[in-house]
Design a protein that fits this description.
The protein is of the alpha+beta class and 571 residues long. It contains 19 helices and 17 strands. Among the domains are: 54 residues, Transcriptional Co-activator pc4, Chain A (Roll); 193 residues, no CATH class; 91 residues, no CATH class. Strands 7-6-5-8-9-15-12-11-10 form a 9-stranded mixed β-sheet, with helices on both faces. Strands 1-2-3 form a 3-stranded antiparallel β-sheet.
């Protein structure tokens, strides 16, 4: 199949029609036709139109086509609308709940608009009205959505997601014996006086202490970041407590999607507690194996082990990382502990430490200079410094990680004048580089796993972090803004936001399995440019309309044809 390629030669852009094919598993150019400059192409097209007697178009109307139909088709292949309606029950009138949720998810995926603008500013500008005959301005209004959202509760969503997850595992052969868990939170603009319990003031990931936040737990497969479990929770709940609250629900989900209980759950150090580890491995059919991280202050004796005793990890993916392995009692149990030294992590952390050293040095110098000027009488206005206030200032300056290790200071008061002296601790800095930076401590009950398996499992945690990063993207799949003010509606909001991530991740996986590696954002952006167009001509005083598609090329054209997305166009 042919597609257009632009080449710049000596500052001029020329266009070619190029056709590629896979030869011995690799993409190769098998045909190339020179088309000329853009001006040449336009002139040729104009001459063809004139010779064929084709009039110029009066105007065109474009409708979103490829992105929305690709997501809808995937949802229909998973029977998501049917699953939702079977659980919630079909309405006697109005838009089915399954339709509302799938439309909300598609909208979140391609660039969300408010429910007030949903119909006019988005839905009617797509080809989706052909696919949802019961959807209209009333059913897609804020009130229409709220009516449907009020029919769904947390337990229903859990059962719906259970069925969807089982279908995904079976249809796409998704890895479910290694799963990744983490929490995050999202800011909201919900009024402080709102009685909703999910939005609370807490430690915001965006550092917005002035706003209420909503927490979200995710369990994800490492296969293309596919969410298999989610649940919103009050934003002021700390990670360890949240993990304890949800372990039984994670077990239940895994029990329904995995026939055996050989599942390893990966989580970060913020979820650690003796009670949580005990709950993970309770002797029941749904017990988890686990890989987690330890804080460095939990194993200070391990950090002093010379790097010469570390062994290299085998494989190109580890980037020169070395590891030391031992057994240790943690959280009341004897576990396998792997201490890693990662050169790439070391360099990144060292850059951060070096920047903080410069900032702290400048701040300490400025504070010491002010004290000296006050002592000399150059500054006499303002509040007098005390030993306590200077100590507080210095502690604030050195609050950045590791700074107390590399700076020493003295605060004294002599004849009523407070002075500050400080020095850089070279020995402390060398100790930091030798024993702290670049090191991570992992623990697991998988004592039969190799160091490489344990480290790979823990590093897979980035998949769930990528999900959170995607859900905080401003253009596509954004969880915010949260335009709902009751817990029930926020729960449904979280559901269709995660459903949007599920659909786009699976769509991206289908492209990858066709041999095309591309980010989710680039995929949505490219698909969104493939429109369905009505072209209006004035022919002898009468307006006639012809239909056209913005040309899909390469793998996009192949995908549209493979799943026959043109079927969603009204004939």
């Amino acid at each position: 199949m042919a597609y257009l390629v632009a080449k710049t030669i000596k500052g001029h852009k020329y266009y070619y029609s190029v056709e590629k094919a896979r030869i011995n598993g690799k993409s190769r150019v098998v045909r190339q036709i020179y088309l000329g400059t853009l001006e040449n192409i336009e002139q040729n097209q104009l001459e063809k139109k004139q010779s064929a007697g084709i009039p110029d178009a009066e105007y065109t109307i474009h409708f979103e086509f490829a992105a929305v139909t690709a997501l809808l088709d995937l949802a229909d292949r998973l029977e998501i609308r049917q699953i939702i309606d079977e659980e919630v029950g079909k309405r006697q009138q109005g838009l089915p709940v399954g339709d509302s949720i799938v439309l909300a998810a598609i909208n979140r995926a391609v660039g969300q608009v408010s429910k007030n603008a949903f119909h006019e500013n988005w839905f009617k500008k797509t080809v989706l009205p052909n696919c949802f005959p019961l959807a209209n301005k009333n059913s897609l209004s804020s009130q229409g959505f709220w009516n449907n959202m009020s029919l769904i509760d947390r337990d229903m969503i859990s059962r719906i997601e259970d069925e969807i997850s089982k279908k995904i595992i079976k249809k796409y052969n998704i890895t479910s014996n290694l799963l990744l868990f983490d929490n995050t939170n999202f800011i909201s603009y919900i009024n402080t006086d709102s009685p909703a319990l999910l939005p609370q003031r807490g430690k915001s990931k965006e550092h917005r202490s002035d706003l209420r936040i909503v927490g979200l737990s995710l369990m994800v497969s490492p296969d293309n970041n596919i969410p298999l479990f989610h649940e919103p929770y009050p934003g002021n709940t700390n990670d360890a407590k949240r993990f304890s609250e949800i372990i039984d629900k994670l077990k239940s989900r895994c029990g329904s999607i995995q026939k055996n209980n050989d599942i390893t759950l990966v989580f970060d150090r913020g979820n650690n507690s003796s009670a949580n580890v005990e709950k993970l491995i309770e002797d029941d059919p749904l017990a988890f194996h686990y890989v987690g991280g330890l804080k460095q202050n939990q194993c200070p004796e391990l950090l002093s082990i010379p790097k010469s005793e570390y062994k290299p990890l085998e494989g190109d993916t580890f980037g020169g990382t070395t590891a030391f392995r031992t057994m240790k009692t943690e959280f009341g149990r004897l576990v396998t502990v792997v201490l890693t030294n990662n050169p790439e992590l070391f360099e990144a952390q060292l850059r951060g430490v070096t920047n903080n050293i410069l900032k702290c040095s400048n701040a300490l110098s400025e504070l010491a200079g002010k004290l000296e000027e006050r002592k000399e009488g150059k500054i006499f206005r303002g509040r007098q410094y005390s030993v306590e206030s200077v100590n507080t200032n210095v502690k604030n300056i050195l609050s950045a990680e590791h700074m107390k290790r590399v700076f020493e200071y003295d605060v004294e008061s002599v004849e009523g004048n407070v002075t500050l002296s400080y020095r850089f601790n070279h020995e402390g800095f060398d100790n930091l580089k030798e024993h702290i930076l670049g090191k991570s401590i992992l623990f697991t009950d998988r004592d039969n796993w190799s160091n490489e398996q344990i480290v790979s499992a823990y590093r897979a945690q980035y998949h769930v972090e990528e999900c959170f990063k995607q859900m905080k993207h401003k253009s596509y799949l954004s969880f915010i803004p949260i335009r709902h003010y009751t817990d029930r509606h926020i729960i449904v909001h979280a559901f269709y936001c995660v459903l949007a991530l599920i659909l786009t991740s699976l769509l991206n996986l289908e492209f990858k399995r066709m041999g095309y590696n591309i980010t989710i954002n680039k995929m949505i952006e490219d698909l969104s440019e493939i429109d369905y167009t009505h072209i209006y001509y004035n022919q002898k005083g009468k307006m006639i309309v012809k239909n056209a598609f913005y040309p899909a090329e390469g793998v996009y054209k192949e995908y549209l044809e493979k799943y026959n997305l043109y079927k969603y166009i009204k004939k």
